[in-house]
Amino acid sequence: MKIDRRRGVKIGGLWYGGTDPVLDPYRGQRSGRSGQHAGKWAMGRDPRDCRQVFFENPGQPGHWHALDWNGLPPGDDVPAFGDARVRELLGEAARAGLKPLDDHELLPVLLKLLAARTPVTQWPTQMTAQQKAERARELARARAAAVDRPPAPLTVLRPPARPAELAATTQRAITDDRQRRRKAAVTQPPTPPPLLGEALRARNLFLLPDEDDNQPDTPEPA
């Protein structure tokens, strides 16, 4: 398995470590391992929280470096999601005919699935017992994954939010993603419209000029 020069490593259908400098010395290369796992890099993943995978740096044996999913935006507002949500995400993308060149294109689909699965209006009192149990299990698995992470990785996401905080976190992530896409679509800030009075004066053909405009210029005394 080669480490892609631009996208990093692909684990479970998602790409990780696209801009992580720890992978730079190994991009475009296969691992130098031999034996049963010849040519494969030592990678670890936790199916309970797919926001990260872990890479054993050959230059530091025994040290596992956390690689973030390429689709994560700056910050850590995206709620935890597990293997089941990844399968749902990839299936939804395939049905929509989406073939992303970058996993950032999958983020809106993921946020839509998270919001649809646990809409804000249904947190926490209006959900059915089955919905509450399903989401509680997913959050519990993600919290356990946070506890079980390798010691002292270089980058670590915060543990997943409690149910009471999840709706606000999901909504904030959706809003931030929309703002990023709007900014990316505009090359320069739009020109602000003229003031209402200025616009009316420019269009009114019968508007008399100000008195000051009719006064002849008075020469200054020598």
What features would you highlight for this structure?
single chain, 222 residues, mainly alpha, 3-stranded antiparallel beta sheet, two-stranded antiparallel ribbon
Description:
- The chain is mainly α and 222 residues long.
- Helices cover 36% and strands 9% of the residues.
- It contains six helices and five strands, in the order E-E-E-E-E-H-H-H-H-H-H.
- The chain has helices spanning 83-95, 107-117, 129-148, 163-185, 196-203, 211-214; strands at 9-11, 14-16, 43-45, 52-56, 64-68.
- The strands form two sheets. Strands 3-4-5 form a three-stranded antiparallel beta sheet, with no helix packed on it.
- It starts with 8 loop residues before the first strand and ends in an 8-residue tail after the last helix.
- The mean pLDDT is 75.
Average predicted local confidence, pLDDT: 75
The proportion of residues forming helix, as a percent range, comes to 25-40%
Number of helices: 6
Sheet having the most strands: 3 strands, antiparallel
Task: Tell me the radius of gyration.
Answer: 27 Å
Query: Poorly predicted ranges (pLDDT <50, ≥5 residues)?
Result: none
Number of strands: 5
Record the strand order, biggest sheet.
3-4-5
Write the layout of secondary structure elements.
Layout: E1 9-11, E2 14-16, E3 43-45, E4 52-56, E5 64-68, H1 83-95, H2 107-117, H3 129-148, H4 163-185, H5 196-203, H6 211-214
Antiparallel strand pairs: 1-2, 3-4, 4-5
Helix pairs in contact: 1-2, 2-4
Short description:
The protein has 222 residues and is mainly α. Helices cover 36% and strands 9% of the residues. α1 (83-95) crosses α2 (107-117) and α2 (107-117) runs antiparallel to α4 (163-185).
